[in-house]
Amino acid sequence: MLDSTPQMDKLTSEIFSILENNFLFGYQNSSLPLKDTKSATGKVRILSIDGGGATDGILAAKSILHLETTLRRKSGNPNAHIAHFFDVAAGSGIGGVLAALLFTKGKHDRPLFTAGEALKFVTENGTKLCRCSKQGFLRRTFRSPVKVFDRTFGDLTLKDSLKTVLIPCYDLTMGAPFVFSRADAVEMDGCDFKLSDVCAATTAADGPTKTVSVDGRTKIAAVGGEVAMNNPTAAAITHVLYNKQEFPFCNGVDDLLVVSLGNGEPSQMTAGNGTPSRTAMVKIVGEAVSDTVDQAVSMAFGQSRMSGYVRIQGNKGLFGVKDEKKYVNVSVHADDMLKQHNVESVLFQGKKCNSTNLEKLEYFAGEIFKENERRKTDMLPIVLVNRTTTSSSARTSSATTMSTISSS
Asked: In this structure, is the dihedral angle defined by the CA atoms of residues 187, 97, 83 and 43, taken in order, positive or negative?
């Protein structure tokens, strides 16, 4: 008699994946068979970038640089940008700043920054985003370098994004997360914001930052995106699955290629009595939520997680709090994290180590490039980018703002 255990395990996993899809992302697809499926029209490519973490964006920036370098090599185009190979970019905190740098239109309609330039920006401005305080115990205080953002983005707004961009913050006025979205900016009044203001809002933590839309109709009191959603992967997936105006043929996770980038898990910072400081607790909670999102997304992908979803994250405990003189060492530690074994969430089996983070990035760069090449011969567009502004009554895409829009 043949052993049916492997088949039963696979069936159980697929059933759980379908249930997870409906619970986490809220879409219905009654025609989905209990077997591996692949969209005949290609896959939507999503890049999601966490907030600061232990490396304050440097691990994510180096991961993106490796992706861009690999994609340039595979495409034979030394001037290719990461924005040419992704359809959606979501970023929280410093991850939101990276998304804005890489996916905003600059001169000659090319992306504003290359991956190398974005890494340099994060490295050079890291001490403006994060500093050490010696008030009794080491504490990290995030500050938005508003002048740097103004100088970098000028009058550019969300409408100047080359692709779909999602950047969260937390709106104290409404007591709910608020997601800055290019889709909202081009489709609804009161939803277009200057990118310098968006970056200041998603990195704010010292106190609420007053943020006003370009037309003055929407006003929010923003605190950092790391408070709202340190890992925006689930929000990005939900946006794509619901937004039929931009992604008409995307019906489930089998139609997605998702690269989710972490920034290292922080070492525990303690006060004099050995208990975590208040700042450390915020970071610990943020990383716990990020891990939970990773677990849920991985389960939702089920059997297709190996080819459709990758999470790049560094293991905690490699280093502690840094000061300005030691900031350069973070770059070295980020390199070490990329060489670590990639940790994957497996249904009913907990965490599993496999190839290294660099090897995972190399593999997914190959999958992303294949999708890029496949589209050259496809008659149907995978993504329909809306560049015209319509009234809010004509809006057909999904709402990505989670708080009620307040009009002045």
From this structure: negative
